[in-house]
Amino acid sequence: MKDKPKLGSVFLETRGIHKRFGGVHALRGVSITIRCGEIYHLLGENGCGKSTLIKIISGAQPPDEGCLVIDGNSYQALTPIESLALGVETVYQDLSLIPNLTVAENVALSEQLVRASGRLAKVLDRAALRETSRRALSAVNLAVTDDFLDTVVSNLPLAVRQLIAIARAIATKARLVIMDEPTTSLTRMEVENLVRVVNELRKDGVAVLFVTHKLDECYAIGGQVIIFRDGQCVAQDDIQALSKIDLSRLMTGKHLDGGRYRKAQPAEQVLLDVRKLGCESYFSDVTFQLKVGEILGITGLMDSGRNELAMTLAGVIAASGGTMTLGGEQVVMESPADAIRYRIGYVPEDRLGEGLFLDKPIRDNIISAILDRLLGAFGMLDRAKSTTLANDIVSQLQIATPGVDLPVQSLSGGNQQRVLIGRWLTIAPRLLVLHGPTVGVDVGSKDTIYRSIQDLAQQGLGVIIISDDLPEILQNCDRVLVMRRGKIRADVLPEIVAEDQLYQAMIADETKECQ
Amino acid sequence: LSGASAGLQAQEKPVMATVVKISGIPWFDRMHVGVKEFAAATPSVTAFQNGPSNADAAQQLRIVEDLVARKVNTLAVVPMDPAVIEGVLKRAMDRGIVVVTHEADNQKNTNANIEAFDNADYGRALNEKLASCMGKQGKWTSFVGSLGSRTHIQWVDAGAENAKKYAGMTLVDAKNESFDDANRTYEKAKEILRKHPDLRGFQSSAGNDVIGIGRAIEEAGLQGKVCLVGTGLPNPSAKLLESGAISAIGFWDPKYAGIAMNKIAKLLLEKKPLTDGMNLEVKGYEKVSVKKGPGAGVLMVGNAMVIADKSNYKEYLF
Amino acid sequence: MSCANSLSVDGGGEFTFRSRVKKRLDNRPELFTLFLIVALSVFVGSVNRDFLQVSTFFDLARSSTVIGLFALGVFVILAAGGIDLSFTAIAALSMYSVTKLVVSYFPEAPMLLVFLAAASGGALLGLINGLLVHGLKAPSMIVTIGTQYLFRGFLLSFVGTVWVLSLPDKMEAFGKIALFSFVSKQGTHAMLPAFVLILVFASLLTWWILNRTLIGKAIFAIGGSLPIAERLGYNVRAVHIFIFTYTGALAGIAGMIHVCSNRLANPFDLVGSEIDVIAAVVLGGARITGGTGTVPGTLLGVVLVVLINNVLIMAGVPSTWQRVIVGAFILLAGALFLLRRKR
Amino acid sequence: MKPKTDPQLAFLISINVLILLCAAILSRGAFIDSYNLQSMAAQVPELGLLAIGVMLAMSSGNGGIDLSGTALANLSGVASALLVSAFLSADADPWAFTVAFVAVAMLVGLLGGVLNGLLIAHLGLTPILCTLGTQMLFTGVAVVLSGGVSVRVGSAGPLMEIANGLVCGVPISFVIFCVISLLIGMTLKFSPFGIQLFLMGTNAKAARYSGFALSRILIRTYGMCGVLAGVVAVLIASRNVNVKWDYGQSYLLIAILITVMAGVKTEGGYGRMICIFLSATALQLLSSMFNFLDASNFIRDFAWGMLLLIFLATMRYDLKSLFIRTTSIPTSSVQRPPASTNHS
Ligand SMILES: Nc1ncnc2c1ncn2[C@@H]1O[C@H](COP(=O)(O)OP(=O)(O)OP(=O)(O)O)[C@@H](O)[C@H]1O
Ligand SMILES: Nc1ncnc2c1ncn2[C@@H]1O[C@H](COP(=O)(O)OP(=O)(O)OP(=O)(O)O)[C@@H](O)[C@H]1O
Ligand SMILES: [Mg+2]
Ligand SMILES: [Mg+2]
After folding, report:
1. Alpha-carbon gap, residue B218 to B199, rounded angstroms
2. Contact A156 C6 (CB under 8 A)
3. pTM of the full predicted structure?
4. Is 80 exceeded by the pLDDT of residue D258?
5. Which of C180, C311, C202, C189 is nearest to C250 (CA)?
6. Is A270-359+429-507 a CATH 2.40.128.20 domain?
7. Looking at residue C221, what is its pLDDT?
């Protein structure tokens, strides 16, 4: 590891890896090759085995068959520490930062752990700890002060934590950095920063493996794509050689186009009238109208106030100023329960953490918002009625499941998301607020979800989509509001605006400052 | 699990159970000696002793419940809290089980309750010993196991009554709870000594109190300056008696109490009468007074009180 | 790239002076414990002048030793996100068995050996805890309820129930060694027993382990999030085994000090005081859900609990009120820590 | 919907049968004498009801647990006895006395439970810390009220009947226990409240986003625990004629033992009433068997500790053999209990 690795030499190979979970054959003989100084994008539908492969490479799980070859040495299975010692660094989807430790400790402890080869009976080298963390944090462009190093990470905003996680990965002399959907919580700006960091790594001969569902980013970054389908590697090629359509076809085996979903024209009647809405220091002076059957997109950078606006519209956090009028009726909300009373549904961004009851039946997940309206005899729940209702939703949203008694965790990501949307259909909503409706959902499922959203608008619902997935906004909305620094800065029509213009509107201030 | 215990119902021999407050502590180990001695001397019955592992009235209740269900012939109980087991003892008597209690002169549902001595006499005797040690002068205080333990309260109340005879003696901060925990008592005693530097005497009640208080006195170097009289067993108190930290201990021998309970139970089982002044042929119970108790049964009082000091405790070592 | 810089550091938190002071306070919940101790002492001292004496301090230090050693162990486990309810049973089993062994086979044993034996006995039982907690993947509270029953049941049914009254001379003498002693005006001896040094040493050691070694960081990491720590390569098994073994060893030592200072080995002692110890650790600012807390805080928590337990008579409060007061303190402190964190 | 076989339930049924058989054989039939069965049935409710309280608190998730149950039961008993005796005479007016006693005991229980709920829901105290504090507080208040001595309840006939009477040969207290288990079991399984409670225990955030009134659910849950403690107070008072602040100090751990043996998930969101019921009876059978055989109570403690650990071990083993066989390090990402991976 002392000398700079030769660009293009083989760093890691997986040979015929198989992995089974009970009856599920998650990986079926995966053989891929990773070379130093290359960038790879691992693409594939939900559940095709991407995360499993990563876990095997990073030592979190052993393979059932096959082996890993790293630097010419063959390994049956690795432990996390061995894998780290060989230079494989992983940025997990959930960042895997330890919330109660400081920034410095989070960034640099792994290095000391590796140096001790996992043995814990070692005295800390505190000077090295600080030195390493300083170096790594400046590499990802975070300003390093002593106070910052001693801040407990749970007190930091998500975007900074994401960068810290990346800093940790490059703190040690990594040979391969794996990032599992690293950009889901980053704004465009930070993604660009990340791309820069990645390119520097690459120049140093480090290999980078991305797992992502955002095809545009893959093109922007460039490099090789590895495409998985059903636990097998179906293609590996230079990304520029493949079109988006090709990629989708390879991933799903189906042909999809990227055109606009939105066709219907909304009615003229105003459904929602928001005036001078504000919330603490997050946003202020938000004024807009939503018509019946209209789909409104709201976008902006992470800290633009769009997330808080979404939560305020859904009653998750209370507004501190301004008014909301829904169908002519003044709306005052303190909690999601109030929102439900006004028939406003909210699909949160974090599906697993905030949306679903994973090990509970699909039925309970669907009817959870209207339990008190499904009463039968003796104030007990009417089982038959609720099952019928759940079945209706399942067929309306084409949720693929053998039955509503199964736990919702038995579904794939896209279907889980539809269960969540289905929950809000039960309240006969007038307004649906979808916060990142397809985060981490694969291409095939996205398509189905988009079609469902269009159908709902057709039926006269007002829909608000809050997202930073610009193609998604452009494909689905009638109108797009762009937020920046807590205010609405632009109101554009997607037919006439291109993605990069929209992006310019999102970052306008920053660009000015930079110049 | 002793083989003898299995299939008790099938045996002809009467089964005589003794249930104590807590198993394993020195006091009831000593009682166990007595019960075993009784069993050995009386081959015509099966006698054994049992008790809960925690000082918890609820646990004792459960043991008694199960013994009643098992239909033992006699039940000798030293209740943790007499009130708690009233109900089950009533059921036991309804089932024809002979019930004898000890240290529970207010127990209603019992055929006979046996006290080693008159509680007021005992409290007075302890206090008299304290008074003579203190020269009938100065502040003194009292300890009880807990405010809920009736006999302890009787003893210290009788003691307080006795001390009124002496104008020079003042009772301060009375009835400290020790929870029969030597360490806690030690800490409390130190605190009291700090609060009342002129304190001259302690009268204590629970078996471990003298050990805790005695240690506090010894460590403060107050032997001879502060007097300590209380209930205690000779063996554990020996060292402190020797060093002068404990002035005198009062007690009755649980071994003989155990034998006496079972003898009474056997008499009752054989439908023999209990008469005033009778001799149980057990040391300290040679001339037992028999009165009507608070319930249907009788209240028996022996003369088993022992007050021992440095000069004579060796006669009683156990 | 100044752009990216300004963006992220903005989010990183504005480090103004006030926010820094507030942060320090938020990171130091034990200051609040200290405040409670001072307030209580001032109150009791004003009610009763006799409270403010050197001998009071000596007695507090003595009473804090055993519970302090327990608390350090509990804190280490709490920091790693677990709870232990079996440490008192460990202490009882280890102190009683070792005392019995020493009395019957090696009455001349030097104190170092006795303590070593008690510590290793405790460590062994702690090791069982650690292996079970790790192996059964069950909440440590539940597992240690089980081992509490197991250890105490084993002690009382197989080792013995009879008090050991005459300790070997060396053990007896050890409890009486004084660090300082003097005779007060009233002719009372007051002394600071030497065994409080063991608590001082154990505190320093615990502090050092938690703050200066890799395993200390691993303990906090696991307390923060076990699955993440595991994924990052922290050896969870080693940490589980270490914390329970360490706590077991501390409990064994505490048990032996208990014997020497009480000058008798009573196998019924100690069990039942777990809740007091946990309360002390929590009052010292450690979150019961793990990942936080400090050694000084823990010691302050111990002092607070010992103080409450021991000054009521001084303050003229009837002892019946003791529990109400401790309970109220726990709720109050818990609520206040929480409000401070929320701000 | 196919009826699933619950291994927990099967295990508990077989262990009950096994102990009963063992005890019957060892005691040559004396154990299954009707008086003993009645006596055991009358002993189950106190612990069983406390265990239901622990289970309710546990199912609410977020580290829910109720350590204050026994203390609250004692407080309810003491407070009710003192209050009611001050106004009514048990001998003169037994029925009024009984009704008043039961009502006040349950009310005090409810208030204590609601206090727990409020502290946890609105102040955000961790349940374990909160109930640790209230445990001491309740005990302390009971001590202060009673001055530390046991309080006589007064032997009103109807009140005494509750714990000592029989209907059709079954102890009334056991019938009460069965009825309460059934009611709470039904509530948990079929009422919106019960479903919300379990959903909340699974994922509190998702529950909030689904519009559940979390505070109300928590307060109701802990309130229910409190009422159960009140019922226990009535049973204790009825059986012992007396109430005291330190009664049943060893009950807390046993109640937790019952709950864990019943397979209630300590992290929340799952628990079955029938299992609690069977777990309570299993423990009672075992304990009575020991008393029948004159076993030392220390051995029994030892056996209980062993049982709990063996039980945890079998649960772990089941999990393992059903699901993950190869990994030494369990999957870490999102918590995903075993389930059929059945997707299209
Ligand atoms: N721990 C596990 N137990 C059982 N089955 C598992 C486990 N982990 C993964 N699987 C199965 O393995 C398959 C591959 O899962 P994996 O998480 O690798 O998919 P993925 O490609 O990462 O999907 P996504 O894009 O949704 O992250 C899935 O079908 C899943 O059912
Ligand atoms: N531990 C597990 N046990 C059972 N099934 C699992 C497990 N882990 C993953 N799965 C299954 O794997 C499939 C995909 O899993 P995964 O969680 O990777 O998808 P996702 O996270 O929803 O999608 P994405 O990662 O794209 O957001 C689902 O069907 C899920 O049920
Ligand atoms: Mg994945
Ligand atoms: Mg995923």
Report:
1. 14
2. no
3. 0.84
4. yes
5. C202
6. no
7. 95
